Amino acid sequence: MKAMETIQDLIEEGKLRTVWWALCIFAVTYFLSHTSKSMLMNIPVAILLVSGLRILLTEVEFRRKVRSGRPHTYLTLLERKQMSLNDSRLSTPPPPPKWKRKIGSPVVEAAANEFIEKLLKEFVVDLWYSDITPDKDFPEQIRGIILDAIGEISGRVKAINLVDLLTRDIIDLVGDHLDVFRRIQATIGTDVMRTLSSEERDERLKYHLMASKELHPALISPESEYKVLQHLMSGVIASVLKPREAQCPVVRSIARELVTCLVVQPLMNFASPV
């Protein structure tokens, strides 16, 4: 019984659709008759138009474009381009400082950083700067300048040809000093040199070298040693500092005196204590 009702419903639905199709085709054919007098030629065209219209209405989805209530401004464009907090680019670690890239050794970097930190704390912050202000900007800037200088020196040292340095330059330098020592020793006398103490021998050598103008200026007096080291460090600071910092007399003078008095002179005194 249910099957019969279903077939009957299908027949009724088919009749209804046939009537609607016939009406639509007739209406379209009637409108097309204004352009063509042949009714039979208009029927296939009407069938195609009605079929195409049905496909458009049933298969194609039409949606109205929703326009924004406010016009696009520069701020709205910035909001679209703004990165979210979860963007992976924001979590990328910053590149290491330039001086670390030039050194390229974590052990040396840590040692240099610790050494400069203690140096500034002992001779700058605790000695006089903390009595003026608790601000930490100046020590940090000085630390950055010194570390940049160490990085620049490290980069230049890496560029040195060690083979030529060890097999040619140092050997020539030591050979020249030995030649000068033997010549002065011959002038003083080998037998006399054996009878002198180490202090007296140094004084005799210093006297003869000064007379022949072959004595290094740094060995004349402590003041001369300071002047020579200051002159050498001026050249080093001018080479390793950034151009903007090297052109500032205050920065150049402070960096030169810090390196000369707190680094090089203590190392020289440690190497040759008097």
Automatic annotation (TrEMBL):
The chain crosses the membrane at residues 16-33, 39-57. Signal peptide: none annotated. PANTHER family: PX SERINE/THREONINE KINASE PXK (PTHR22999), SORTING NEXIN-16 (PTHR22999:SF23). It comes from the Eukaryota. It is found in: Cytoplasm. Coiled coil: none annotated. InterPro entries: Phox_assoc (IPR003114), SortingNexin/PXDomain-PKLike (IPR051837). The keyword Transmembrane applies. Residues 105-274 form the PXA domain. This is PXA domain-containing protein. Keywords: Cytoplasm, Membrane, Transmembrane, Transmembrane helix. It holds the Pfam family PXA. One of its GO terms (cellular component) is cytoplasm.
